[in-house]
Specification:
This protein has 280 residues and is of the alpha+beta class. It contains 8 helices and 9 strands. It has 2 domains: 135 residues, no CATH class; 110 residues, no CATH class. The strands form 4 sheets. It has a 3-stranded antiparallel sheet. A two-stranded antiparallel ribbon has the order 1-2. A hairpin with a 5-residue loop joins strand 4 and strand 5. The two termini are 39 Å apart.
Length: 280
Amino acid sequence: MNTQIAEVKEKAVGIRQKSKPIEVLIQASLKELGKALPTHLNAERLGRIALTTLRLNPALAECTPESFLGALFQSAQLGLEPNIEGQAYLIPYTNSRKVGNEWVKVKEVQFQIGYKGYIELFYRHELASSIDMQTVYENDVFEFACGTENYIKHCPTLKNRGEVIAYYAVAKLKNGATLFKVMSKEECLEHGQTHSKSYDKVKKEFDKNSPWFKDFNAMCKKTVLIQLMKLLPKSVELQKALAMDNTTKSKVNIDMFNVKDETNWDEEPIIEIERTAVNE
């Protein structure tokens, strides 16, 4: 028993020592963070959230401090709180970097936006009225048309709804416009297979720790929501969010939109967290 206690203590001390460089960097950067924050976020609060995230996810302590801070600055600029109610996430990954003539693997932090973060950004738009997302099942009454007479009609059945066949998102604007995006289950799956690094193209399956494997329904909702966002009148915040989602940046700037993405993933997430884009 004493040996087990000693091992646990040693591990905890090791994690703490690894996280110190990042913690020091966060504390030293609070002033700069404050310049990047919108009015509804406080730099000290964001700093506390970052330190809590670091302690709850030990793999982040193994990442480069610069990439952690870059992800934090991106979250700060968009006014999204990382790992709070699914708005945004700081995800540890293995990145490939070229050092001299050789490629080396480096643990870095990627910034990802959850679908609740996109909903938050939508409602900040001056034209935003309402937004909704739904899952369509085979026994639901579902019709839609595109073109000059576009519409959606969805009447969910109360029981025995059958298999999932589609997803859609609808946004209403204050100027009276209504925009929507519909994607079949197959279209969402194809999107995940094309864009997710957790899809094994040899085995033709998602890794068991992938959010696409664990919560396919939620990932499809995020996918259709992002496609809808591309159709909406763009606010500056929304344009930047679409550009900064799923990026890694090891430099900081008051406008993180202008910092180059350094992502070059060749491996899966280092650990399983609650869950990359969504846990809905």
